[in-house]
Amino acid sequence: MFVDKTLVCRGCGQEFIFTAGEQQFYQLKGLLNEPGRCPTCRAARKAARASAGLDELEPRRREMHPTICAECGAQTLVPFLPRGDKPVYCSPCFDRVRAMSR
Ligand SMILES: [Zn+2]
Ligand SMILES: [Zn+2]
Fold first, then answer.
1. Which residues are found with C-beta within 5 Å of the ion, ligand 2?
2. Are residue 89 and residue 72 in the same domain, yes or no?
3. Are residues 15 and 53 in the same domain?
């Protein structure tokens, strides 16, 4: 037999009821862990995941510009338009240059 249980939400710290019906459902599903979050937080996380999923489907594409690395001469793509007043590096060289200037 199941009885309603009061649990504390990990997300918002509010108490919520893990009802007997839900416990039964969890057991049917073979879920051993009690829910860590209240229904509100669960719904919010689900919505956040759903919108994250949509963003993945339609990524905001950054325009890439081909340029020549000032360090090794390799062709590379940079997410900005090189204006020629600053050296542009490919990403391995950029990391190296940045590490050296530290
Ligand atoms: Zn919560
Ligand atoms: Zn390079």
1. 69, 71-72, 74, 90, 93
2. yes
3. yes
* Domains identified in the chain, total number: 2
Q: Ligand nearest 13 Cα, by number?
A: 1
- The DSSP letter of residue 17 is E
Same domain membership, residue 72 and residue 44: no
Local confidence pLDDT in tens for the 102 residues of the chain? 899 999 999 999 999 999 999 999 999 999 988 999 999 999 999 888 887 776 555 455 677 889 999 999 999 988 888 887 889 999 899 999 989 877
pTM for this predicted structure: 0.47
**Which ligand sits nearest to residue 90's alpha carbon?**
2
Same domain, 53 and 22: yes
Q: How far is 69 from 78, CA to CA, in rounded Å?
A: 10
Residues linked to residue 6 through DSSP beta bridges, in sequence order: 17
Task: Please check whether residues 40 and 9 belong to one and the same domain.
Answer: yes
